[in-house]
Design goal:
Length: about 240
């Protein structure tokens, strides 16, 4: 079975048709820059362009950089605040005719990793942390998603954790891998203390550099890099749409 997956990010909106049985892209990924400002009309038009690029008329799964509850956007991370309160699924379906499932972008990536990637053999508690502009998180227990966890907002040193340990902070403050790895370790130790996961999966673009900061992670839990890399959001969004 094939479903179109779309991954909405702060800098780009990407899509591809996915074989959800194999967890693989069956087309080349198509990417368009996220419009500025990232308002609902502008972004929906861009999503429509991606759907039209594939001449797609079936269901769509869409990972979105926000907390999404009953199809309603509740937060706005790297998108315009005018998204808050919008039923994005209904808006996209109205413009494209394609039934659309909207979910948090890291929840989508977590679906891909839990089903096909680093967590596929784990039946207990899976915690995924995507280190990028902020820290996005996904939490699964016995293959079931706990949606919209937003655990990058834990307080650390009188600030949200993502203001202390996101990859963007490493770049902005020119931290060494050891310095930044220590901060990531501090964050993950707190996660471990609160949730006692069976595996922690590191996502985001920095997962490609995992070997550079892995030596500074001192946890009881196995910590591994995501396997799906940049395709995780697309694959997971399609997979989530197939299960509705």
């Amino acid at each position: 079975m094939e479903i179109l997956g779309i991954d909405v990010g702060g800098s780009g909106i990407k899509g591809a048709i996915v074989d959800i049985k194999k967890g693989e892209l069956v087309t080349e990924r198509y990417r368009i820059r996220t419009p500025k400002p990232a308002t609902p009309p502008a972004m929906i038009k861009t999503i429509e362009e991606i759907i039209n690029n594939f001449d797609w008329h079936g269901p769509v799964g869409c990972g979105f950089p926000a907390a999404v509850k009953h199809d309603i956007v509740k937060t706005a991370s790297n998108i315009d605040d005018s998204w808050i309160g919008v039923n994005a699924s209904a808006q996209i379906e109205k413009e494209t005719g394609c039934p659309t499932l909207l979910l948090n972008d890291v929840d989508a990536a977590g679906y891909a990793e839990a089903e096909f990637g680093a967590g596929k053999d784990c039946s207990g508690t899976i915690y995924m942390a995507a280190f990028g502009t902020g820290i996005g998180t996904a939490l699964f227990h016995n293959r079931q998603l706990v949606p919209n966890t937003e655990l990058g907002h834990f307080p650390m040193h009188n600030m949200p954790a993502e203001k202390y340990a996101a990859n963007s902070i490493r770049e902005k403050q020119n931290l060494s891998w050891e310095e930044w790895g220590g901060r990531v370790n501090e964050y993950l130790q707190m996660v471990e203390f609160l949730f006692w996961p069976d595996i922690i999966i590191i996502g985001g673009g920095v997962s490609k550099e995992f070997s550079k900061f892995e030596p500074f992670l001192k946890l009881q839990t196995d910590v591994v890099p995501a396997q799906s890399r940049n395709h995780a959001g697309i694959i997971g969004a399609a997979l989530a749409a197939s299960e509705t």
